[in-house]
Amino acid sequence: MSISTTIKTIQDIMRKDAGVDGDAQRISQLVWMIFLKIFDDREKEYELMDDGYVSPMPERLRWCNWAADPEGITGDELLDFVNDDLFKTLKDLSLAVEGDRRGFVVRSVFEDAYNYMKSGTLMRQVINKINEIDFNKTDDMNLFGDIYEQILKDLQSAGNAGEFYTPRAVTRFMVDMVDPKLGEKMLDPACGTGGFLTATIDHVRENCVNSIEDEAILQKSISGVEKKPLPHLLCVTNMLLHNIEDPSQIRHDNTLARPLRDYGLKERLDVIVTNPPFGGMEEDGIESNFPAAYRTRETADLFLVLIVHLLKDGGRGAIVLPDGTLFGEGVKTRIKEKLLDECNLHTIVRLPNGVFSPYTGIKTNLLFFTKGEPTKEVWYYEHPLKGTSPTPRQNPCV
């Protein structure tokens, strides 16, 4: 059975439940369950590798002890357990020791999670369907991306779209072109479900990791920030799937809410790759965190200013931007001047229409740049629609 069919079956079950109202709640319900299953799978691996491993969760709350058995608790007993024990305990999970990062991750995930279902019998049916998905198979890692894409399609049809799923071909291409190295600090300041982060992890592992020590360096070099709770939860789960042992470096926050002047030299980064939200407006006051010349409430423009600021000299950036940023005037012109003066904007790839369909029809571009020297010329490449010829051009910047 395909993953899309499995997810559709789960959502059909949830539609029978009187407590779940709309696709957004069904998706939220599904995601915290998937998180617990994947977290439990990772814990089984930790126990095999470390005889002294202690779970941050009470034993009774681990997925394997209440959800894995298809004949396990159901009905009112299951509902009472989830509402009165599981959620209450995990929302206020006490950390066993100082620096218990895995416990911190679990608690932060459940701070914004809710159980909407009112039927314990239907919940058991959902749990049993989730248990049919095997996330431990290496070949099935991409199932998580497929799940999220299916989720977004459901949100789109429900009129609640607001997140874009960046196709894996785009994330992999951008990361490969930036070519992050072992030991370099990498950030996605609008990480969504972690597509660029996982592409970076895969890239570094394939090209640079040759020992346990190398892997330990990689584990500490990846970081992300996501503003919305649902994508944040999905990103944390995605990190667990990609064997990041401590996904606490994925913060639930708004990167733009911190004043630029507060970033010190030690916080500069080697690599930033991102697809920030565009077409939206930030809340009142966010623009005051930026210098007066670059103040705007257009999210994509603010992220571009932030990225240029955060990169260290020699650092590389890649970003997805709409035509509005490239061809707009006023404050957009000043932001582009900053980019061209402080960075070598060496490549622009114009994507064909339909890359982000059905989420948006906005025309998009990939910008690649290096911090520390001004731009002299830009290689511009227009990616063709299937069946047409590419049109590379090398033009001086104006």
Automatic annotation (TrEMBL):
One Pfam family matching this protein: N6_Mtase
Keywords: Methyltransferase, Restriction system, S-adenosyl-L-methionine, Transferase
Domain (DNA methylase adenine-specific): residue spans on this chain: 141-387
PROSITE patterns from the UniProt entry: N6_MTASE (PS00092)
A GO molecular-function annotation: site-specific DNA-methyltransferase (adenine-specific) activity
Catalyzed chemical reaction(s): a 2'-deoxyadenosine in DNA + S-adenosyl-L-methionine = an N(6)-methyl-2'-deoxyadenosine in DNA + S-adenosyl-L-homocysteine + H(+)
EC number, as in UniProt: 2.1.1.72
Residue ranges of domain N6 adenine-specific DNA methyltransferase N-terminal in the record: 5-130
Keyword Repeat: no
Superkingdom of origin: Archaea
InterPro entries: D12N6_MeTrfase_N, DNA_Adenine_Mtase, DNA_methylase_A-5, DNA_methylase_N6_adenine_CS, SAM-dependent_MTases_sf, T1MK-like_N_sf
One BP annotation, GO: methylation
PANTHER family per the UniProt record, alphabetical: SLR6095 PROTEIN, TYPE I RESTRICTION ENZYME ECOKI METHYLASE SUBUNIT
Protein name (record): site-specific DNA-methyltransferase (adenine-specific)
Organism: Candidatus Argoarchaeum ethanivorans
Lineage: Archaea, Methanobacteriati, Methanobacteriota, Stenosarchaea group, Methanomicrobia
